[in-house]
Amino acid sequence: MKHPNEATLALHAGGDLGLVARWRTERHLAKCGPCRDCVAAFAQLREVLPDLAEIPEVPWNRLAAEMRANIRLGLAAGECVRTGDGNEGATVRGSHRLSTGRAALAFASVVLLMYSGLLLERPSPVAVPLAGKEGPLVQATENGIQVRAGGSAFRLMNAGAKSVTYSASADGSLGARYVDPETGYVTINNVYVE
Amino acid sequence: MWSRAIPIPAVVVFLSAGTLLAQDAPLPPGSVNINLPANSPLALISTSLSDSRTTARGAALILDLHMSLTLRNSSQNRIHGVTLRVVSQEVTLGGKGWVTYPSLNVGPGEAFPARIDMQLMRPSPIISGTLVQVDLDGVLFQDLSFFGPDRLNSRRTMTASEMEAQRDRDHFKRVLAQSGKPGLQREMLASMAHQSEVSQLAVTVKRAGRAVTSAAVPGERTAEFAFLQFSDSPVAPLEGWAQLAGNEARAPHINVRNNSARAVKHVEMGWLVSDQSGRQYMAASVPSGDATLNLPPGKTARLDQEATLSFTSKGQPVNVQNMMGFVNQVEFADGRIWVPNRQNLDNAGLQKVLPPSAEEQRLTQVYLKHGLEGLVQELAKF
Fold this sequence. Notes:
The complex is a heterodimer of chains A (194) and B (382). Chain A has 194 residues and is an alpha+beta fold. Chain A is built from five helices and six strands. Chain A has helices at 6-13, 19-31, 33-52, 60-84, 88-121; strands at residues 137-140, 144-149, 152-157, 165-169, 173-179, 186-193. Chain A has a three-stranded antiparallel beta sheet with strand order 1-2-3, with no helix packed on it. A three-stranded antiparallel beta sheet of chain A has the order 4-5-6, with no helix packed on it. The radius of gyration of chain A is 34 Å and the shape is elongated. Chain B has 382 residues and is of the alpha+beta class. Chain B folds into three domains: 26-152, Immunoglobulin-like, CATH 2.60.40; 160-197 and 360-380, no CATH class; 202-354. Chain B contains five helices and 21 strands. In chain B, the strands form three sheets. In chain B, strands 11, 12, 13, 14, 15, 16, 17, 18, 19, 20 and 21 form an eleven-stranded mixed beta sheet that branches. In chain B, strands 1, 3, 4, 5 and 8 form a five-stranded antiparallel beta sheet that branches. In chain B, strands 2, 6, 7, 9 and 10 form a five-stranded mixed beta sheet that branches. In chain B, strand 13 and strand 14 form a beta hairpin. In chain B, helix 3 (154-197) crosses helix 5 (358-380). Classes of the chains: A alpha+beta (194), B alpha+beta (382). At the A-B interface, helix 5, strand 1, strand 2, strand 3 and strand 4 of A face helix 2, strand 7, strand 8, strand 11 and strand 16 of B.
């Protein structure tokens, strides 16, 4: 009988295995007592682990700082060894090519992730918040007049007019009057908020 | 050096990501719906949406809509005004827009262009169904008859505009008859000088509560209106007040009396404000808020509005010191409209504060574009 390795049993104890792997492991466990015991031991250990974080006498921060220092030391030592190597230029160039490739791969992954997100998002319409806290209002903008409410706006533009006459009304409307440079007709745009 | 610091493939990929975030796309078919009733006096000859596009900016979507319509007068009367209602209910809850083309002179069978340029901004990139609905709200004919559902009171608005247009055309015709072309030219030059001198306020209107763009509010006070009285006005203002705080004014209330022999169903007051230096501005109009107003002869009524207006000029808040009101428009129960005559406006000094009418604005453009002869020919058409 071929037994699953310890990592698989540990993952199974935590419920972290995939669908197929879980099915295969469960089939094996049904027939194998030692593996069942192993899984039970892992499960018991998982229950104890959260409590370890609460033990005050274990200096987790100091341990983490020491681990970071050791990693930096290792990296520095690696640099020293590389500097002493006669084939330095080739190593650096090779490393640069490698990092360029990695960077491109990373960016491509990000773009792919964003694109996938957009594609997945598209079929489900998103509810549009239509009014902000301040409520809708009408106002003149640089090139027209608008009704604005939260992140939404409805603007009527002045179509390249040079001279625009604005008229507000206390009933909640705003008008912009101009002579359309293309048609030559007087045009009055109005927006209104209820 | 730069290419070593930032690898070229990474730049290409980054730019591609930027393109994904701000994409331009043509407007999807069916985004705009133009609806003219079957018995409409206007026929839609052509529609163009060229240069219209959508742009995705992060999570938001911006739609630039450039609509060029060609409409034909399919009635037997000359058309003097058209109002199109423009609605995007999905984008602006409770908000709407409309475009009015006053001062038209379109004969039966003639076609004319109409343009609508608009922009929609919405926080969702999803486009579905009709985004913009364009409906006919009304057509005003030369004899002041009207066609349309009139959901926007465009009958009254266009009739008042037509009354002002007739008033101003008559004025310029009279000047031409009395002083000849040199006199008409002087009038045009004076009008253009006046148009460039009129100070305009940037006004933000909110239906209730305070506008968001106001400056520091030092404390609200109740201020009374002073009134300009026109001898031939069918309605007289009696008293009025509004709440002032810094560059904000809200809740104007004005009591009026019907001095005419006919019932009145709509009154609109002009609202002037002056700043600390005494400079006057046309701030807004105050229409009667009651859509079912019925003011019999000799009776009084109160015009109530609850909106808040904030005033700025050249980006700076304009603190309101004083307010003045005048009767700007009266609609009788039979649909006839009264507007102040030019003499009234001159005598009250209002010509210096008020912008010119739509027709005067149009006639000065005709003068600029086609010269004095062109203007004389234009006046002869009416």
